[in-house]
């Protein structure tokens, strides 16, 4: 096992014990809210693109979820909302991709 010299251990301990001065929690919340808002608008675009390809009843729950995510982004947990927005956009992209496939040939 390799041993670290005492000076390195001391430097490592000092680095780990000092709080990050550059991390202002309010600024980080604002930045995450901006990221979340960008994700919401991208998910809205994905839902709009998927709408013509959706089956009956597919879009209503997704639209309701997007509305909930907007509220969560503004007043709840923007990090979780941003992650859930990605999942929603992915589901919308699957619907859109399904609509781009050629119909099965009938014999």
From TrEMBL:
User: Would you indicate the residue range of the signal peptide?
Assistant: 1-22
Keywords attached to this Swiss-Prot or TrEMBL record, sorted alphabetically, are: Signal
Reading the lineage from the top rank, the first entry is: Bacteria
What is the recorded name of this protein? Answer: Uncharacterized protein
What is the scientific name of the source organism? Rhodovarius crocodyli
């Amino acid at each position: 096992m390799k041993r670290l010299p005492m000076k390195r251990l001391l430097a490592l301990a000092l680095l780990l014990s000092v709080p990050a001065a550059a991390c202002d929690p309010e600024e980080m919340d604002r930045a995450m809210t901006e990221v979340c808002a960008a994700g919401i608008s991208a998910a809205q675009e994905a839902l709009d693109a998927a709408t013509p390809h959706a089956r009956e009843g597919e879009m209503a729950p997704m639209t309701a979820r997007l509305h909930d995510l907007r509220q969560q982004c503004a007043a709840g947990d923007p990090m979780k909302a941003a992650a859930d927005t990605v999942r929603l956009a992915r589901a919308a992209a699957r619907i859109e991709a399904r609509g781009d496939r050629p119909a099965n040939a009938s014999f």
